[in-house]
Amino acid sequence: MPRFHCPAPLREGQPLALPAATARHVQVLRLQPGQPLTLFNGEGGEWDAVITRMGRSDVDVTVGAHRAVEREPARAVHLALGMPANERMDWLVEKAAELGVASLQPLHTAHSVLRLAGERATKKQAHWQSVAIAACEQCGGNRVPLVHAVGDLATWLKTLPASDAAQPVQRCLLSLAEGTRPLGAVLAAARADAPLLFLSGPEGGLSPAEDTLARAAGFVPVTLGPRVLRAETAALAALARAVGDG
């Protein structure tokens, strides 16, 4: 059954005009009145629905029963990463959403090839958010990961809150430098429900100065093994390992 993200309050029995972007997606698929579909708004679970009217640019549905189904990882895993170039960032966002990432923070770093500012950065953020939504529609995820605005690594590190013993967030830095620990060992020592925050560099990794700043901000340097992975592969491999262990 087709699934659509519908960023609106939903309740059983509700007649609803779908938001413009959702209606456009329904029309592209050439669905017709009477056909069933599934809606989710990111607040938990999903709703059955039936199309009642197809207009030129609008679509009406009746919302059916709510199903309290969740397909999210046992713990929240967040990714902060130096943006890889070209279409690799799109691919990374899509696959991270499929795996169940909780949020993504795109960052400028010293070795970043991709540089975004102003309107271009805003448009890219919106595009990546739409990629994440489409991935959740396809994979069954009912909570869409938030794609944050593009930031600068050093500035972003300063905004991180102090560690909270009541709700500890394990911060991990994917690193090829000396003194790393196996990611598996760090995950095994962390609380099973503790949120994770991974920081990963772009092509070429983080600079020595950035590596030092990250460690000072509480990031534990970890390794995924002896192979040198591409920037987008490393981030996804860490995410897959973390959600698998959760």
What this model shows, in words?
The chain has helices at residues 20-28, 88-99, 118-139, 153-159, 183-189, 208-216, 231-245, and strands at 3-5, 15-17, 36-40, 46-54, 59-67, 77-82, 103-108, 146-147, 151-152, 170-174, 181-182, 196-200, 220-223. By secondary structure, the protein is α/β, with parallel strands linked by helices. The chain is elongated. The mean pLDDT is 92.
What's the structural blueprint in terms of helices and strands?
Layout: E1 3-5, E2 15-17, H1 20-28, E3 36-40, E4 46-54, E5 59-67, E6 77-82, H2 88-99, E7 103-108, H3 118-139, E8 146-147, E9 151-152, H4 153-159, E10 170-174, E11 181-182, H5 183-189, E12 196-200, H6 208-216, E13 220-223, H7 231-245
Parallel strand pairs: 1-3, 6-7, 6-12, 7-8, 7-9, 10-12, 10-13, 11-13
Antiparallel strand pairs: 2-5, 3-4, 4-5
What series of H and E elements makes up the topology?
A: EEHEEEEHEHEEHEEHEHEH
Number of helices: 7
- Count the E strands: 13
Radius of gyration: 20 Å
Give the termini distance in whole angstroms.
29 Å
- Based on helices, strands and strand pairing, what is the structural class? alpha/beta
**Shape designation:** elongated
Mean pLDDT figure = 92
The level of helicity is 25-40%
Beta-strand residue fraction: 15-25%
